[in-house]
Design goal:
heterodimer, A: about 425 residues, alpha/beta, Aconitase, domain 3, Aconitase, Domain 2, 3 domains, 5-stranded parallel sheet, 19 strands, about 35% helix, about 20% strand, B: about 180 residues, Aconitase, domain 4, 7-stranded mixed sheet, 6 helices, about 25% helix
Amino acid sequence: MGKTITEKIFDSHVVDEPFPGTKVLAIDVVMCHEITTPIAIADLVARGKDRVFDAAKIKAVIDHVTPSKDSKSATQAKMLRDWAARHKIRDFFDIGNNGVCHALFPEKGFIRPGYTVIMGDSHTCTHGAFGAFAAGVGTTDLEVGILKGVCAFRPPKTIRIDITGKLAKGVFAKDVILEVIRTLTVSGATDCVIEFAGPVVDAMTMEERMTLCNMAVEAGATSGLCMPDRQTVEYLWPFIKGQYKNSRAAALADFKKWHSDADAVYEKKITLNVSKLEPVATIGYKPDQVKKIRELSDVKIDQVYIGSCTNGRLSDLRIAASIIKGTRLAPGVRGIMSPATPKIYGQAMKAGIIKIFMDAGYCVTNPTCGACLGMSNGVLADGEVCASTTNRNFYGRMGKGGMVHLMSPASAAASGIAGKLTDPRKFIKERKKS
Amino acid sequence: MKTFGGPVLFLDRSDINTDEIIPAKYLNEVTKEALGLHLLEDLKLPGFDPKTGVLKNCRVVVSRANFGCGSSREHAPWALEKNGIFVVAAESFARIFRQNMFNCGMLAIELPKTEIAGLFADCDKNGTICDVDFSQKTLIFSWGRDKSRSVGFSINPFDEALVKAGGWLEFADAKY
């Protein structure tokens, strides 16, 4: 019987099976940020166990509230900063070098096919785009990960989603994942991993695959996963060329050992043809409440937010800029754009993208998670509505009483111009003509 | 091991997420104690208002499907813990929340949909006590003058070991 990629990763990392149905895995990368780590640090100190299992396998960043907005967030940042210094954690990213964890860490080449990755952050599933098993965990799991380098899991079942057809103009990875979540519902993949496959995924860039995997948790999944392929090799090439003696073929052949076998057993297999998929947006307070955005054109907005671990990467900013260029935000609409990392910020500046946003009336912020979870940098007031490229539309998520409509960067950009939820396709068409 | 059981808080909705259990604006706290005051502050449930004192003395939550979905924040179990609520019984849980509960030595008990529906239909929402017989894996709900119902449950052996050890840190530190 064949194995899925997840089963292969589990088999290669299992260090103990304390009880039937529970596997304790060795963890390759333990990632830490300033919101969920300080309480773990404080607990380890209180227990007299202020140690780390392997400083080289721990990556840390201050990203959720940065620059610190008040004394409490400054204390969190300080706790992480002091801990990283005390344990000589080399890969620690502080202000000036910090960005949204799930954009920054892939950019640094920290995630490789076949890896096990945990973080005290539910969107850790993003890193499955590299063919890794990457799971969001709570602070206690993180604490044990820091101290012992292990984490316990029930071996997840796998739902395979083959995405077929061809994406129409104006339809993006974000629309695809929202459609997947609509299909599965917010709990349809609980205790499962979602394996994304098929020609549409094969054709996606790593940035698009990260958008796809990022929201797997919104369907309840433990991780999203894509098979590592040429795109993966290309993305990681600067970091791996020495290891593979400058041979891309060797890297690709090595990556393929992780691929799910043809006779692997799946919990469920779904084929999703996306040729007829239109740009979509969420309504309500659950990410599986998804509608065609053209059916929501009576929804007026107060704010546009473009950024986050879902859609704050260069290709996201580029497509939004192509729509925004030469326009202004609708009267009364605030625009906030946050490049996800300093590298992306620099590239966007060089490409003229930052200027396009600023000319259109956007506030461009530093890289941070900020407004996505209503902690800083664009919190909504009661009754306000935001067109957002983030990943959660929960009640109160971006500020108590606010409404968040999730959508692609193209749809958010178009909505900002019109002042209401807007299908981006007409802007894309117009631009092509001119 | 913690002591489980007491008055029940019924939350009649599915998909109650961790942002509702403890809003993100309180995630800048660095102690668990500060979270207790804000439990369920943003819960979207008609008629529910934590400020009315409804949480006072509650020790057990009963809810519907996919309880604890969303963010991985262990602040959600901690906010429950600081209010003395060590048990949540629901149709189903989001994975991370469920694991966080057991990792803290608390109970996330899955009951069949029909059983949960029966409890919502029959129990007195303002006066039900749930006793937890951990060794017999039974919840005993009692209300009114003489109404009661016993509901068996199962948890997997790993989660049971975590509850007995007091949590995952204690278990892992002794073993790995």
